[in-house]
Amino acid sequence: MISRRIILASSSPYRREILKKAGFDIEWHAPSIDETPRDGEPAWDLVQRLSRQKAEALSHHADSLVIGSDQVAECGGEIFGKPANRAEAIRQLARASGSVVLLHTGLALLNTRTGRCQVVHELCEIVYRPLSRQIIESYVDRESPYDSCGSVRIEGPGITLLKRVKSDDPNTLMGLPLLRLVDLLESEGIKIG
């Protein structure tokens, strides 16, 4: 039984759904931070930094555990976030076509009582099927994946664009490594189950 207030520092409906399905009773608030990557910042550093900043943006909530998470895709050294428009979504998917894409997910858990902030990085390897321009455009027009890292919504038809997924936690694919979160909560003395 969880006895502490848990807050998700995210506006992502996907992350909220993961936590809800796992039985977590949470509050959520969208943090306001600058998510611009720094020059030369590797993807794993970017997601960890942004996860921490998201959690810390809600540090004013007393006696709470605040979850921050961020995700980017990396293909051939290029970092993809959420596409700004149709053209960018099409470009991201064309770049990913037939390629290996690394999905970097940062996770932070801030204990506002103690100030302790734990931050971890999870990696998910995705192999995309070869995608024709017609398949890409049809998918983008049907799904409008503008709120999804790398222009693909895994929760729906986007899964059909993939050939293989390798991850220690299937939830990482949707932006919240739940298995690692459980470990972090337990290290804060929270009993799960």
What does this protein structure show overall?
The protein is an alpha/beta fold and 193 residues long. Helix content is 28%, strand content 27%. Strands 1, 2, 3, 4, 5, 6 and 7 form a 7-stranded mixed sheet that branches. β1, α1 and β2 (27-29) form a beta-alpha-beta unit. The N and C termini lie close together (6 Å). The mean pLDDT is 93.
Fraction in beta strands:
25-35%
Largest sheet: 7 strands, mixed
Element pattern in H and E: EHEHEEHEEHEH
Can you count the beta strands?
7
General form: elongated
Query: If helices are DSSP runs of H or I spanning 4 or more residues, what is the number of helices?
Result: 5
In angstroms, what separates the terminal alpha carbons? 6 Å
What's the overall average pLDDT, rounded?
A: 93
Give Rg in angstroms. 17 Å
Low-pLDDT runs of 5+ residues are none
Q: Could you say which structural class the secondary elements and strand pairing correspond to? A: alpha/beta
Helix content: 25-40%
